[in-house]
Specification:
168 residues; alpha+beta; 5-stranded antiparallel β-sheet; two-stranded antiparallel ribbon; globular
Length: 168
C-alpha cells in the first residue's frame, strides 16, 4: 500500500467534530484537489462554496433531512454544478471526492451529504445566493474529528468481477 491508497482506505465519514477551526492552508489545498478532478470535456462545471458562518451552517443543517450535524462543523463545502452541463453530476461528484480526500490527507474529517435530487437543494441555493444556472450536488461538512466510527465495508470479492459476471 502506498500513501495515496492509505489515504483512500483510511477515510471514514465523520459526523462529530471538535469545536476548532480548520487551518486555512488545508482548506485551500483541499479546494485545489477538488478543482483538479477529472471532468468530461474539461468543462469544469462546478462552483464550490465555503461556509464558515455558524448562523449559516445552522440554517443549512435545518434545511437538510440527514445533515443536522452540519451545524457543528467548522466549515461546510457546498458543491454546485452547472445545470446545462451534460455530466455535471459525474464531474461534481469527482470534485467532491477529491475534496474529501484532500481534507482527509490533513486529518480533517468530513461526510458527504447528498444535495442532488433533494427537496432542500433549491432552498440551500437561495440561502447562499447562488445563481439559478447551478444546482446543488453535495454538501461536505468538515472539521477536526471528535469521534471516528468505522463502518464495515463489503468484501472486495463480493462486489467485483473480471471480464464477465458469473452467476453463482
Amino acid at each position: 500500500m502506498n500513501v495515496i491508497t492509505a489515504v483512500i482506505k483510511g477515510r471514514h465519514s465523520i459526523r462529530k467534530f471538535r469545536q476548532a477551526p480548520v487551518d486555512e492552508a488545508f482548506i485551500h489545498d483541499a479546494l485545489e484537489c477538488a478543482v483538479h478532478a477529472p471532468t468530461a470535456m474539461n468543462l469544469q462545471p462546478w462552483l464550490i462554496g465555503v461556509v464558515r458562518d455558524k448562523g449559516t451552517l445552522g440554517k443549512i443543517a435545518g434545511l437538510t433531512d440527514h445533515g443536522k450535524f452540519i451545524s457543528e462543523a467548522a466549515v461546510c463545502f457546498v458543491v454546485f454544478g452547472e445545470r446545462t452541463a451534460k455530466y455535471y453530476l459525474e464531474d461534481c461528484s469527482a470534485a467532491t471526492e477529491n475534496l474529501i480526500l484532500g481534507l482527509h490527507a490533513y486529518g480533517v474529517g468530513s461526510c458527504w451529504v447528498a444535495g442532488d435530487k433533494k427537496d432542500y437543494a433549491e432552498d440551500i441555493q437561495k440561502l447562499l445566493d447562488v445563481p439559478e444556472k447551478y444546482t446543488l450536488v453535495s454538501l461536505v461538512p468538515a472539521g477536526l474529528p471528535d469521534e471516528v466510527t468505522i463502518a464495515a465495508k463489503k468484501e472486495t470479492k463480493k462486489v467485483v468481477f473480471f471480464d464477465k459476471f458469473k452467476k453463482e
